[in-house]
Protein: Pre-mRNA-splicing factor 38 C-terminal domain-containing protein
Organism: Rhamnusium bicolor
Amino acid sequence: MKRWHQNNELEAKVSALEDDLDEDIEMEDESKYDLEELSKEKEKEKRERKRERSKSRERQRSRERERHKKDKDRDREREKDRERDRDKERRDKEKRERDRDRRDKKRDEERKRR
């Protein structure tokens, strides 16, 4: 009877150990999935941050392109204005010279008549 009692005790202990082992394995599997989910979440967050940085860089480049384009357009306008001013100055100068030449010619003709 003593042996039978010892056997029962051993079987109970073995059964308890097997149950514990099964629980540990289940917990390991669960924690493995938790780690995988956590890893997936971290990866997703990392991709999200990367995407945000990429968008931010693209916005920055876009702003720089716009700024560059505006600067270029402004420079063109300034150059056009300068060219217009030079043309006007040149025409004004030519007109003054013609007027002066006419006055001189008219004066010379009047002198000849006398």
